[in-house]
Design brief:
It is built from two helices and six strands; from the N terminus they run H-E-E-E-E-E-H-E. The longest helix is centred in the N-terminal third of the chain and has 24 residues. About 5% of the residues are buried. Helices cover about 35% and strands about 30% of the residues. The chain has about 120 residues and is an alpha+beta fold.
Length: about 120
């Protein structure tokens, strides 16, 4: 259940931080959280469909469960390791990466993800 606590904690923190932008800067903020049926192997933040922050996660062994299966978990490499990509010039590598990230994200959001209510 460690993963559930971590997911909920991260979700609350992200939602609260983004909602604070509405109060502090008057920015129109809408937050929707959805869950995937698998553990993501990367962090992807998309800002205004024009900027992407991206980082791979590292896999670590966490031991065994009661049925003696090995358990693996992922850990983000840290906010300082996020790569920044901006869609400034159509056709350049960053713009293509932003476009492809949006397509990938939307494909997950619109197909296999489900609404998430944080506990």
């Amino acid at each position: 259940m460690r993963w559930l606590f971590a997911r909920n904690s991260h979700g609350h923190s992200l939602r609260d931080t983004l909602m604070a932008l509405r109060l502090s800067h008057g920015i129109d903020v809408r937050v929707s959280l959805r869950a995937l049926p698998f553990t993501p192997m990367a962090e992807l933040y998309i800002v205004n469909s024009a900027e992407v922050l991206f980082s791979y996660c590292t896999v670590t062994r966490r031991g065994t469960d009661p049925v003696t299966r090995e358990i693996y978990d992922v850990a983000p490499t840290g906010m300082s390791m996020l790569g920044r990509f901006q869609a400034t010039t159509a056709g350049d590598r960053d713009a293509i990466f932003v476009e492809q990230s949006l397509l990938w994200f939307d494909s997950l959001w619109n197909t296999i993800s489900t609404d998430l209510t944080l506990s």
